[in-house]
Design goal:
There is one protein chain. This protein is of the alpha+beta class. About 25% of the residues lie in helices and about 35% in strands. A four-stranded antiparallel beta sheet has the order 1-4-3-2, with no helix packed on it. Strands 9-6-5-12 form a four-stranded mixed beta sheet, with no helix packed on it. Strands 8-7-10-11 form a four-stranded antiparallel beta sheet, with no helix packed on it. Strand 7 and strand 8 form a beta hairpin. Helix 1 packs across helix 3 and helix 2 crosses helix 3. The longest helix is centred in the first third of the chain and has 22 residues. The protein is elongated, with a radius of gyration of 24 Å.
Amino acid sequence: MAEATSTLHKNIRGAVGDLIFRNYNGKTIVSARPVYKNETNTEARRQARARFSDAALFASHAMQNPKQKAYYQQKARQLKLPNAYTAAITDYLRKAKATVITPSSFSARKGDIIVIRVSKSVFKIASIKVMACDQQGKVLSEQALTGTQDQKIFHFTFAEDFPDFDKLKITTDEPGDQEYTIHRSAFRRSLI
């Protein structure tokens, strides 16, 4: 890449022949047109492009809502991102981390409580939907939960005995409604 300093090139943007002119911070940068060799359009690439397209659409809609735009402006400053639009795309593309903590006496009986921690760096997750399922995926119990004050901890209480209980499916309110499946064998035990 080179910087075009003559006044002739000052306001040029776009492609001219095999050259690309871009303006960055008031400077005109010239580079060669990219050449894509042997690039195959694999299924993984199509999915990645579709996911990014969904993220861009989400960010565009978020920028039209003043409350969401203010939220993402704050997150952009916090993450040192250039603008709220980029923060909204980051929120959409970044996945949360979900962990389940059970007491050592946990046996999927009525009244047992599972603590679910869902965290996502600086973005908030205010509510989740939790489904307790058996090995075949049949839903045994379903609850909509709201987080505690720090919005990362959720409590799922068993309303009945579920001896067939095998896994939790957790759907968050984060952009894109991400779903996480945690098998009973992956639960962490607390010492209580």
